[in-house]
Amino acid sequence: MRETKNIWLGLEIGNSRLHWGLFRGETLDFTWDTDYLPESAIYQLAQCQTLDDLLLAIFPLHQRTREEFLLTSSPSSLPPLIVASVVPSQTALWQIYPNIRIITLDQVPLQAVYPTLGIDRALALWGAGKSWGFPMLVIDAGTALTFTGADENQCLVGGAILPGLGLQFASLSQKTGQLPFVEMQDFTSLPSRFANNTSEAIQSGVIYTLLAGIRDFIEAWWCLFPEGKVAIKGGDRTLLFNYFQTVYLNIASRLILEPNLTFCGMREIVMSEG
């Protein structure tokens, strides 16, 4: 039987989904995503007696196999749940979990942070910097597209926030009279830059200007820190990375593609406290 005493769960409550990570000490065993859970479902999870019970309760909401869950060799009690949240209403629901810890901004050892910096941005930056070194710029390609950077002294340089890919497509459809909604799952390659139909014109406008904007931020970062690292995470990370390999290969070759940067940051906080 595998060692179970150091098992803990990480939960990142994002703008659109819940992101889960199962840890054995410093090792992130596996990750998965679910939709938000209603209060009744969270209450049921809080009543579970073992890790297997907890994971099997979540199982219907994601794609991993039942066998993969059962390989976890459950401890006899619920594991600690370490939460980082950017959605206060969801954070409140999880307070009923019996062994919960909510990570707050003051617990992340970055210097010179401002009070409203998102905990997801702070943890991802801390995790990336501790894993690959500072200076570090983290690009989170999620619901919002964010840039967050810290210098060699682990001091926050700053960043930027703009609508992510999906939000840009959705806003054009919702806030105009006749523009269609463009399905992102249809994207397999870059569209023509100068399109001859409305859907492709929307794709071209959003994608090429977004790529150019990301390139500009990265190049500005390297002007400040020529040896600085750049890591990219978030649900659109692979799509954007593939686009960069097509149009900006010299930049793509220097990017660190890592979906679990927030969990890396959680791990650093948890492990530093023994």
TrEMBL record:
Catalytic activity: (R)-pantothenate + ATP = (R)-4'-phosphopantothenate + ADP + H(+)
Gene Ontology biological process terms from the UniProt entry: coenzyme A biosynthetic process
Positions contributing to ATP binding: 12-19, 143
Main location: cytoplasm
Active-site residues, record numbering mapped to chain: 120 (proton acceptor)
Pfam families xref list: Pan_kinase
Domain of life: Bacteria
Enzyme Commission number(s) of this protein: 2.7.1.33
Cofactor: NH4(+); K(+)
Keyword terms, alphabetized: ATP-binding, Coenzyme A biosynthesis, Cytoplasm, Kinase, Metal-binding, Nucleotide-binding, Potassium, Transferase
Cytoplasm in keyword set: yes
Purpose: Catalyzes the phosphorylation of pantothenate (Pan), the first step in CoA biosynthesis.
Name listed for the protein in its UniProt record: Type III pantothenate kinase
Organism field: Amazonocrinis nigriterrae CENA67
Gene name as annotated: coaX
